[in-house]
Amino acid sequence: MNQHIHCIVNDCHYYATGNKCVANEILVATDNFGATQPDNVDATMAKQYTPQQAGNCIETCCKTYVPKGSKKTIADNVTKMS
């Protein structure tokens, strides 16, 4: 499978030229889930969570976001790509 993840959040560690996301894995969750979980909950932990219904796209978020230049590039115990 050859996926292309597009992103327009240019202050994310994974943002690359051409509006690309260069994360190896991403976790898309409901806003409610994202708001109630710590930053270290990310794609590496996805299998342990029960899928939820969002209802519409406005109720979703990317839990893989890490600010550019942040010391949280190992927040989920996986060294983030640079």
TrEMBL record:
It comes from the Bacteria. Residues 5-65 form the DUF1540 domain. It holds the Pfam family DUF1540. This is DUF1540 domain-containing protein. It comes from Desulforamulus profundi.
